[in-house]
Amino acid sequence: MNLLPLFFALPLAGAFLIPILSKIWRGFSDLIANSITTILLFLSFYSLNLFEEGEVIIYKMGGWPPPLGITMVYDHLSALIVISIAIVVFAASIFSIRYLEHFTGRVKFYTLFMLITAGMMGVAITGDIFNLFVFVEIASISSYALVAFGIEKEELEAAFKYMVMGEIASLFLLFAIALLYGRASTLNMADLANTLSVAGRDQLFWFVAAILLFSFAIKSALFPFHSWLPDAHPSAPAPVSAILSGIFVKVLGVYALIRLSFNVFGLTPQNSPIFFHILIFLGLVSVFFGGIIASRQRDYKRLLAYSTIAQIGFIMVGIGIGNFWAIAGGLFHILAHAITKSLLFLTSGAVVYATGKRDLEELAGLGKTMGITAWSYRLATLSLSGLPPLVGFFPKLFIIIGACQAKLYWLAILLAILSVFTLAYLLKIIRKVYFTTKEVSTPETPFSMRLSMLFLVILMILFGFGFQGLLNSLIIPATKVLLNGTGYGRAILGG
Amino acid sequence: MFFFITTLILIIIGLYAIVTKTNLIRIIIGFAILEYAINFFFALVGFKKGALAPIITQVDGPKNFVDPIPQALVLTAIVIGLATTALMLSFAIKLYQKHKTFDITKIKELKG
Amino acid sequence: MSLIVRKIASIIGGFIFLYGIYIVLHGHLTPGGGFAGGVIIAGSFVLFVLAYGTDESGEKKRFFIASIFESIGALFFIGIAFFGLFLGSLFFLNFLPQGLPLKLLSAGTIPLSNIAISIKVGAGLFSIFLALAATKYFLEE
């Protein structure tokens, strides 16, 4: 497919076109950014028609054959991630048009926005481990700058803290790549998979696996390594919070971890139970503490940030159980949580835009005047806590089914209880912000903000009612890619 | 072997500086040490005793080169390191502008 | 800076710039290339700014020009990659004739990419220097 490099080349080109063209006319920055995210959205859905289940699209950069040159690999797992990124980025870029009125430096914002998009897209479709590191760094560095975008005391402190944690993770990723290169003398992920499965598992193999787990646990903010997230995500402007919480941690943390551990290292629950038990443990602790701490917050965005930690925990538990339905649930939750959590952060942006406040004690009675924001928030709450017709119900159901199939009944019951607990802390915002009868006269949010929120609400309902189609066309093929294990290497290199 | 132990020591020094120092600039120096240690390690991975630097000066020249790929990758990693160091320094400068101090124990607006 | 520094800088600066261009143009034959050459080119500009000093308006002007050149360099690089996509249906395809090995005009698009990278790196590094040097204006306040 000739269109594959467009996924990261278009935003990259946009990032450098915006600073030049916006010197001619300031409106170009909005125009270019929004048209590129729209094109990405169409491309990502269109790309699903181009290949069948079990097929892999291989794109050779510059025409070099796979073990030598950089390859781009597009299978259903990549497609799932690319679609999630495209949806969140599209909604966030529409939302940014009016939200940025509070900020100076619209051009710089859109440049960083395009770079973070390019980095995430690159991570999702690359088939080369060093290229993965480069894209991780492109996305990370632009995210540090975006977190500090307000350049006030809190933002700078949060960004510095985030950067210290994130850079340690990135440098250890580089260290692991160096060890892998010394071991296998190749950087192509398919070739690595073949070499590692032939070479067998010695201490170095497990050492590299441990470093990678540590690195991606920081990037995905699992519980003991989470401390940067509740500061960094609320400090960013709301559309960026939506990207960071909605999709960024999943692409850089969860996706990179599962791609490397399943497809390159060939780990399965049968041959490496300790690794998967660690994942279940970290995930469960994240769900538990994320939920507990979230319920004690009094800041709109911090509460949502802690909720992100809890939901990432759900994904990790699903991956850690490791049978078909649990992994399908985990992958489905990546998409479902991307839609709902970015919607929740966009409502926080609408509230901040209208009132300028984030403290739950000071906000009250917005349910009447900001009707669409309030209803978006309510629907997203119901979806995330698992009300049946909405999209958030199915992933948790699948994870619980998977836990039952793996004979982990205590885990299934615990997950069901913790899933209801999600409703408890998210309802706190409804009760404080939208439900009280106090009369206030805040204006309804501008049209473009309502449009982006409505887009996500419609997707949430559509994917909920049409989950069967989504499951068959995207989630199940993506799960089969993961369960194929090191067959990934044979599928790309042949033989 | 001596060089690998050196990289290990350098990595530990870098991590120690990042974890224990309270001055923003010293933390950034710690990052620089950690980054260079890992780059050094990566360059060592491609080393071969007695081999030449991978520069082709004639068409049918000698062929026993060290592995050039780690060197190219380290160059990329250095470029990325330049960007991170510059961004970190600019955060440090902005924090100094707001707080008039580089001491992170005195910069505590957030709860964590 | 003193007269001696200024005089020496004005003599040496041009040679440093030329050396940077040499490194860039021979990037596909010898060690060096776009990044190393770009750093040297940026170094020559940094030398001039250090020797002759600058004020706030001059710094803003330089920053503006450097940021434009940075974007142009990056667009040039992506443009080369897109040309490969349009001409040969592969991103980053080396669509130019390869030439003889070890000659200056060889290796297809690689020298062009080196030039693009050197513009990007030179302008980018110089603007990083300007941004960090600009802190002296608010620290004195």
TrEMBL record, chain A:
Domain of life assignment: Bacteria
Membrane topology: Multi-pass membrane protein
Main location: membrane
InterPro entries named in the record: CPA3_Na-H_Antiporter_D, ND/Mrp_TM
The NADH:quinone oxidoreductase/Mrp antiporter transmembrane domain, residue ranges: 128-422
Ranges that cross the membrane: 6-24, 31-51, 77-97, 109-126, 163-184, 204-225, 237-262, 274-294, 303-328, 334-356, 377-402, 408-430, 451-471
Compartment list: Cell membrane; Membrane
Keyword Transferase: no
Keyword terms, alphabetized: Cell membrane, Membrane, Transmembrane, Transmembrane helix, Ubiquinone
Annotated Pfam families: Proton_antipo_M
GO cellular component, one term: plasma membrane
PANTHER family assigned to the protein according to its UniProt record, in alphabetical order: NA(+)_H(+) ANTIPORTER SUBUNIT D1, NADH DEHYDROGENASE
Family: Belongs to the CPA3 antiporters (TC 2.A.63) subunit D family.
Protein name: NADH/ubiquinone/plastoquinone (Complex I)
Species the sequence originates in: candidate division WOR-3 bacterium
From TrEMBL, chain B:
Record key words, sorted: Cell membrane, Membrane, Transmembrane, Transmembrane helix
Highest taxon of the lineage: Bacteria
Subcellular location(s) per record: Cell membrane
Protein transport as UniProt keyword: no
GO CC term, one of those recorded: plasma membrane
Main location as per UniProt: membrane
Cross-referenced Pfam families: Oxidored_q2
Family: Belongs to the CPA3 antiporters (TC 2.A.63) subunit C family.
Protein name: Cation:proton antiporter
Organism expressing this protein natively: candidate division WOR-3 bacterium
Lineage: Bacteria, Bacteria division WOR-3
